[in-house]
Amino acid sequence: MKPSATLINVGRGGLVDEEALIAALQSKRIAMAGLDVYRNEPLPAASPLRTLPNVVLLPHTGGGSYRSWEIDIPASLRNIQQFFTGEKAEGIIN
């Protein structure tokens, strides 16, 4: 991937080598990552993904339930928009 790329994974957590992704993000070999799924769910508290400024984490809201489509996904999208416009988003860890 080129340095300006954003990796997005909403499929399966095991599709992405998280250690390699962390290294690529830390060294700026890729620009960003947006993740809705993780190898281990919930994402462990000690995961470096939680502390990287170029990562957006979602709480596995990409499922097919009515709740996710009507409540969780819109709320997650509002939070992402608020974060990037400088507003306070809910549930920010760091």
Strand-helix topology:
Blueprint (H helix, E strand, L loop, with lengths): L5 E4 L8 H9 L5 E4 L19 E3 L8 H19 L10
What does this structure look like?
With 94 residues, this protein is an alpha/beta fold. The chain has a single domain, classed as Rossmann fold (3-Layer(aba) Sandwich). Helix content is 30%, strand content 12%. The chain has 2 helices and 3 strands, in the order βαββα. The chain has helices at residues 18-26, 66-84, and strands at 6-9, 32-35, 55-57. It has a 3-stranded parallel sheet with strand order 1-2-3, with no helix packed on it. Helix 1 (18-26) links the parallel strand 1 and strand 2 (32-35). It is globular, with a radius of gyration of 13 Å. The model has no long low-confidence stretch (mean pLDDT 87).
